[in-house]
Amino acid sequence: MSCMHDILQHNNQIYVSISGDGELVSFDVTNSCNPIVKLVASGIPRKRFRQCDVERYLVESSEGELLQVERYMRRQKKDEGRETKMFRIFRLDFDATKWIEIESLGGDSLFLGDNSSISVLASNFTGCQSNSIYEYNTRVLHGKGRKK
Known about the structure:
Helix content is 0%, strand content 55%.
């Protein structure tokens, strides 16, 4: 199997973003002796953004949609970590089995991290901005959020 980028439990299935282009596979593990692995959606054509690495995150929106987020970033000087240059967000169209790029998160905010990612309805949290992406790692929450 290709490299795994992220994993998410959604609607009683386990989904894994694999390969460099974000192909999505599902694992039906209801029968532990014979789990079923299925290609759900092919990859996403990557934008050419000079000297950037791409991280992928799987997130369930507050409305139950399956999202895949591409985070384009550049490495900084030795101890300064990574600088995010842009995001692209896709919603899975289960019927067409493909990713659809979206321009807005609506009332949601995304919290993306190296170990887990979540989506929340911003209006339920004081100070949380809708249509924003918050980046964090195991050490620190970065910034006040980025508008998508």
